[in-house]
Amino acid sequence: MGEKRIAVVTGGTRGMGRAISLELAKRGNIVCAVYRSHVESAASALKEMQALEPECGIYRADVSKEGEAARVIEVIGRKFGRIDILVNNAGIFDFRFIDEMDGDYLDRVLNTNFKSQFYMLKFASEYMKKNHYGRVANASSISGHFADCGLTAYAASKAGVDMLTKIAAGELGPYHITVNAYAPGIIHTDMTDAMIRERGDEQVKDLTLNRFGTGEDVAALVGFLTSPEGGYITGEIIGVDGGMFKVQNAYLAYQRAKEQSAHEK
Question: Which of 35, 127, 133, 154 is catalytic?
Answer without folding.
Answer: 154
